[in-house]
Write a sequence for this structure.
């Protein structure tokens, strides 16, 4: 059990995931779905900060790294992330646009 259950998780975007979100944002603006896109990003970030283990579905546990791999969907995005429960860090590995939702 974490020492500080009320403390938010830190979110770390790996690789180019931060710039990919900006690219998707520009595409959403061009296609008239920016409001829905921003709401989805805010919802994902809120869940990752407060309840990443409850929001997403677990995929695999990397015991040697003490990480739980998860994924979660907030249309139009699908987020793949790893949770370090002890240190309360979420590593966002990949964010994909869901097919047919205006960003692909």
């Amino acid at each position: 059990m974490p020492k500080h259950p009320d403390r938010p998780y830190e979110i770390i975007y790996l690789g180019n995931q931060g710039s990919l979100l900006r690219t998707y944002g520009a595409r959403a603006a061009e296609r008239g779905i920016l409001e829905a896109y921003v709401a989805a990003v805010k919802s994902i970030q809120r869940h990752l900060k407060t309840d990443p283990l409850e929001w997403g579905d677990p995929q695999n546990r990397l015991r040697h790294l003490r990480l739980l791999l998860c994924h979660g969907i907030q249309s139009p995005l699908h987020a793949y992330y790893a949770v370090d429960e002890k240190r309360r860090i979420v590593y966002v590995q990949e964010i994909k646009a869901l097919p047919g939702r205006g960003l692909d």
In short: Strands lie at 10-13, 57-62, 67-74, 77-84, 89-97. The first strand starts at residue 10 and ends at 13. The helical segments are 17-30, 34-50, 52-55.
